[in-house]
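Help needed: design a sequence for this.
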């Protein structure tokens, strides 16, 4: 077996040569002095070779780990890694995009991922064989993004890149995810919290300000947002067909949710009161809050923000999204179970399979909590 000392001391010769580490792993020394990890293996008595990256970017320990991962992938698929399927980064990323992103996520998310692939990753890594791409190469791409002041984008691009590599592993085109070693290598993200009111007196003032508004549709939209604390986009696109008055609930379809999962919103008596008023002004539209220009489209995304600004609140004080953090803060302070609150906020847990089927989890507790919240806001007003 090789040692780091032996590898460092290995000098180039007139012809390239190999240093074996065992179990198919060896280091190939080029006449230029560059050193590449290779894996030799057999499938159905046929010999194959696989590149595992360049030394020292891939250390001896990492090369052994990659060898072991490759062996497991071969055993799992029964297919050689160097098969006739295309293995450039762009080929694998395009296949991943079509199967995992396109048609599954929201149009905005699809557009963002496609743009980041084409703008940042394909120019630098697109033509490279995906098994040969190293963490150093990826880091160089990310550093260039950081240099433009786009720290958040750099983190997002690393996540996309990692998903492509993990898809490559499961489909037998590469043996590991080099982005895993880059955690902590980037400038930390600056967490931006949506402005909101959390003081009892300030919330009371907000509710009274909303109550004083003359525009009936916008007034009721803000009240409904306060009582349900859904995301503003979910509120704007709410349809009458999603409301069940008898069950006192609003079922938001998966395609309208950020994480593409059905979400149930129990409706308090206050929220139902808003709906009763809305029936008199928007019953002829499929939407609860139609556009003022046409009943066939929902309210503009800027309508709620503009309304809050007209009430005198700055962007540092309150936003439409701020109703969510306002509710979360107050409910936590009053002792409601964090799991119940998080489920009602539609925050997704780590186990995505479990989350997909648990849209009704804690529903009795959530019904009780939402009515308490409606009562609390009404008393303040």
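Sure. Designed sequence:
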């Amino acid at each position: 077996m090789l040692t780091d000392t032996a590898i460092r001391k290995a000098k180039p010769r007139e012809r390239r040569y190999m240093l074996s580490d065992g179990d198919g792993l060896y280091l190939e020394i080029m006449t230029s002095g560059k050193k590449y990890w290779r894996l030799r293996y057999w499938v159905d008595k046929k010999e194959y070779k696989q590149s595992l990256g360049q030394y020292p970017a891939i250390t001896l320990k990492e090369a052994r780990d990659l060898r072991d991962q490759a062996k497991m992938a071969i055993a799992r698929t029964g297919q050689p890694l160097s098969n006739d399927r295309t293995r450039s980064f762009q080929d694998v990323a395009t296949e991943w995009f079509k199967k995992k992103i396109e048609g599954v996520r929201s149009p905005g998310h699809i557009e963002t991922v496609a743009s980041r692939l084409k703008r940042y990753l394909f120019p630098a890594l697109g033509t490279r064989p995906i098994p040969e791409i190293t963490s150093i190469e990826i880091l160089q791409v990310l550093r260039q993004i950081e240099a433009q002041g786009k720290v958040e984008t750099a983190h997002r691009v690393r996540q996309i890149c990692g998903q492509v590599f993990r898809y490559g592993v499961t489909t037998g085109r590469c043996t590991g995810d080099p982005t895993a070693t880059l955690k902590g290598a980037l400038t930390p993200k600056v967490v931006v919290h949506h402005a909101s009111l959390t003081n009892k007196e300030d919330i009371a003032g907000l509710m009274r300000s909303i109550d004083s508004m003359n525009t009936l549709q916008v007034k009721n939209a803000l009240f409904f947002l306060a009582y349900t604390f859904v995301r503003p986009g979910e509120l704007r696109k709410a349809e009458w067909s999603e409301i069940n008055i008898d069950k006192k609930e609003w079922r938001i379809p998966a395609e309208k949710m950020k994480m593409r999962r059905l979400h149930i919103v129990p409706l308090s008596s206050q929220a139902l009161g808003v709906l009763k008023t809305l029936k008199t002004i928007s019953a002829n539209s499929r939407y609860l809050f139609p556009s003022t220009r046409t009943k066939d489209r929902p309210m503009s995304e800027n309508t709620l923000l503009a309304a809050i600004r007209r009430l005198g609140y700055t962007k540092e004080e309150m936003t439409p999204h701020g109703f969510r953090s306002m509710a979360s803060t107050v409910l936590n302070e009053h002792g409601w179970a964090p799991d119940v609150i998080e489920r009602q906020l539609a925050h997704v847990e780590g186990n995505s399979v479990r989350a997909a089927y648990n849209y009704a989890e804690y529903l009795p507790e959530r019904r009780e909590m939402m009515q308490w919240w409606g009562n609390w806001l009404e008393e303040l007003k």
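The chain has three domains: 4-77, 89-182, 200-380.
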